[in-house]
């Protein structure tokens, strides 16, 4: 099903991006919360943002009875208006400034807005507007939020308007007839002559995320399914750069994937990992995207300051501010940098941040019982072996591993810090001796 094509709904620029499919129009209208309404009053153009909802082939716009457009709509014949809603899906960064763009879905609908005066229609529109909150929030939290009817209807979890409140609220109806959707998808559109330029180009996806719901004072009712009540991300996982003399740690990003693949394209690194070795950069991109999206983890990449190479990755996870504890893990270092100053300084930076910046009382390491090399490395830090958790985690090959648990507590930290500083100084002395 499509809307009719007219001169009014045909864009003059990139007309090939236009579609008149009803499903495409409904998708934009049902996904966006705010639209912009354009109109003319007393010869002057006006544009206002407003909340809205679609019911069938009618869009209902919410406002105040005192607002200018809604007053104008009381006139016989209604008010000519244009409604616009846009969803930006990605930014397109080109080599040339001219070809920078965005991937988007944008709807424009022309028509005459009529003031809704029938109480039953008005109440139905306002209830639908409130219910839109539940369905859109549920979709934004997770596909696992299921339900229909009352489970996702915000109107069932709130008081309906009184007669006085209804009288203060204006609702304008616009029947969908002259409608077009314009959209851009796809890659960067650089000119062929620009493809050899030494500038990064690519797509940066954008999305709206649902934050953690915060109940109002005095609320005792349970949160509905569409309210995201997940635990807030710990402030300990809000990390920036950690900079040393030999290494810099920066928060991991998806664009790091090609370098991660190059650094760890080595079977010797993978036997004890809990994920299979990726076979290409796309596999690493998936791992990086998972790490970045994980609210319970802060992942860094390590770069050798001398060469600029990406040489490793490591993370904080299992943070518990109440017990002042965290785990350092998901640690991988490319083989040429094993037992180098880069690795030593990385641990010094991570532990210094944990104990001296965050106020941690305990930092834990969990090592595969088969990984003797890593156990010895953690022992060299000054960590205490505390025991073994049997059948603790799954390896990348599907087998279950026992994990050896090591920990450093705040009482140990001065000794551990001095030991790491001495080892780092020894690395530096050795490097200077080799230089001479």
The name of the CATH superfamily of the largest domain reads: Gcn5-related N-acetyltransferase (GNAT)
The geometry reads as: elongated
Share of helix among residues?
A: 25-40%
The overall pLDDT average reads: 89
The low-confidence parts are 141-148, 432-436
Task: Supply the key terms.
436 residues, alpha+beta, Pnp Oxidase, Chain A, Aminopeptidase, eight-stranded mixed sheet, six-stranded antiparallel beta barrel, elongated
Model description:
An eight-stranded mixed beta sheet has the order 10-11-12-13-14-15-17-16, with helices on both faces. The chain starts with 17 loop residues before the first strand and ends with a helix. It has nine helices and 17 strands. With 436 residues, it is an alpha+beta fold. It has two domains: 15-205, Electron Transport, Fmn-binding Protein, Chain A (Pnp Oxidase, Chain A); 235-435, Aminopeptidase (3-Layer(aba) Sandwich). It is elongated and about 90 Å long. The chain has helices spanning 22-31, 68-72, 119-141, 163-168, 257-263, 281-293, 341-357, 372-381, 413-435, and strands at 18-19, 34-41, 44-55, 58-64, 79-93, 101-115, 169-175, 178-184, 202-205, 242-243, 247-251, 297-304, 310-320, 325-333, 362-368, 384-394, 400-409. 26% of the residues lie in helices and 32% in strands. 27% of the residues are buried. Helix 7 (341-357) packs antiparallel against helix 9 (413-435). A hairpin with a 5-residue loop joins strand 12 (297-304) and strand 13 (310-320).
